[in-house]
Design brief:
Elements (H helix, E strand, L loop, with lengths): L6 E8 L2 E10 L8 H7 L3 H4 L5 H12 L3 E4 L2 H14 L11 E4 H8 L7 H7 L12 H15 L5 H8 L23 H17 L5 H6 L1
Parallel strand pairs: 3-4
Antiparallel strand pairs: 1-2
Length: about 220
């Protein structure tokens, strides 16, 4: 029997924030855990023997990811394993259940060509605390990857964030402004008389007449 999945860990991001919703299951792989794999994740045969099989949690897993865009590091590797398990469970492939898959390894290679782009390397690059990652664990890796993904794509939503922070329009379509109380000074009778004399002079000098006088009329 080939390699099998022994753990699934997912966290939900909504509007670029962790919601606290998560899906996490340890699974009985129905085979012995190899020594090399044990050194990576630390999950023993004794620990896994009473855990559910993949087909027992498949429906719950698919319901959690239904219609979502999945963010996966080295997506081709994980999607291959998941589709193998789904096929053994006679379920539809992953691509038919979710809205799409974002491969953060591919994204990291585009942003940082020629550099290490493992999850640990990205955590160090973006100052994300991964001190609790002594062994590979699906749920912790999902939480760290969520932080890495948000850091790598932070610039994409800057314009949206600026627009969200801007004051909303008034009914006239103008931004709301705080206007100070203004003191209104009325013209005196002498000032009004001088204004009229000035308009007469403008009218006499102009061939087309004084526009201001015609508007007042």
């Amino acid at each position: 029997m080939g390699d099998r999945i022994i753990e699934i860990g997912c966290v939900e991001l909504l509007n670029r924030k962790l919601t606290g919703q998560r899906f996490h299951r340890y699974l009985n792989p129905e085979r012995e855990v190899e020594a090399g794999a044990l050194a990576v994740h630390g999950l023993t045969n004794e620990f896994l023997h009473d855990k559910p099989k993949f087909d027992e949690v498949a429906a719950e897993f698919l319901d959690f990811i239904q219609g979502a865009e999945l963010v996966i590091h080295n997506a081709g590797f994980d999607v291959g394993f998941l589709n193998n398990e789904l096929a053994l469970s006679q379920a539809a492939p992953l691509e038919q259940c979710c809205a799409g898959v974002v491969d953060t390894l591919k994204l990291a290679r585009e942003l940082h060509p020629g550099r290490k782009n493992s999850l640990d390397a990205l955590c160090e690059r973006y100052a994300i605390d991964n001190s609790g990652r002594m062994l590979h664990g699906a749920l912790l890796d999902a939480e760290l990857l969520a932080e890495v993904y948000l850091a790598m794509t932070r610039g994409q939503d800057s314009l949206i964030m600026e627009l969200d922070a801007a004051p909303g329009p008034t009914l006239q379509g103008m931004p709301q402004l705080e206007c100070p109380n203004l003191r209104v000074l009325r013209a005196s009778a002498e000032e009004l008389a001088e204004h009229q004399r000035l308009l007469v002079d403008i009218g006499q000098e102009s061939k087309t007449g004084c526009l201001w006088s015609s508007l007042e009329a």
